[in-house]
Design brief:
The chain has 8 helices and 5 strands. It has 200 residues and is mainly alpha-helical. The protein has a domain of 85 residues. Bound molecules: zinc ion (ZN) (2 copies).
């Protein structure tokens, strides 16, 4: 606690609200709410919570060596060994996962409002194309292709196109290139461009 609370709580009798406001909303409160577990990323539900309700680690303690570190569901980044990551907002600052995720409000990875308009269940549909939503979004954000457990994906035209783009860039010269591959690459490139327009 900083300055003596008595000074402000006494306040001006004509304006009791001002004094009350000062007492009720002390400055450090924001930092307390921002707490998230450095090992699993779980947010503290209330002020003054000491231990993570999910993994039992004390808030503020670094992750255990054996821990599987948490990732951001928005940009797929995994926190570093210290359970934190570089702030998107302020260079040099290290922030926990909760803070990182809030920073996305001002630093979106792409135009997700638009991408959601193409969603049909767990698929993404655009033009005559269709592919698993999560696979496409991860690719648009990270350039990585994660087929997950879906083995069929390996034979998907869209996945072929993503693999080619990833390996050879936007205008590849591919031996035995096929019109269907070209069309799929163009479809993916179009998505990438439109989605990236929302990145900040
Ligand atoms: Zn935890
Ligand atoms: Zn993120």
């Amino acid at each position: 606690m900083s300055a003596s609370p008595k000074d402000s709580a006494g306040g001006d009798p004509e304006h009791p609200d001002v004094a009350e406001f000062r007492v009720r909303v002390p400055a450090p409160r924001r930092g307390v709410i921002a707490l998230s577990c450095l090992e699993c990323g779980t947010l503290a539900l209330r002020d003054g919570a000491t231990f993570c309700r999910r993994c039992g680690l004390a808030y503020g303690d670094g992750p255990r060596a054996t821990a599987e570190l948490p990732s951001c569901p928005n940009c797929y980044l995994t926190v570093d060994e210290d359970g934190r990551t570089a702030s998107l907002e302020r260079p040099g600052l290290r922030v926990d996962l909760g803070q990182h995720m809030r920073e996305h409000d001002r630093h979106p990875v792409g135009d997700d409002d638009w991408l959601e308009t193409l969603r049909e269940g767990d698929r993404l549909r655009w033009g005559r194309w269709s592919a698993p939503f999560d696979t496409i979004r991860r690719y648009l954000v990270t350039g990585q292709i994660d087929a997950g457990r879906n083995r069929q994906l390996a034979h998907d035209l869209i996945v072929t196109a993503m693999t080619q783009l990833r390996r050879w860039g936007p205008e590849p010269v591919i031996l035995g290139d096929q019109p269907e591959w070209r069309a799929a690459r163009a479809a993916i490139s179009e998505l990438m461009e439109r989605y990236a327009a929302g990145r900040r």
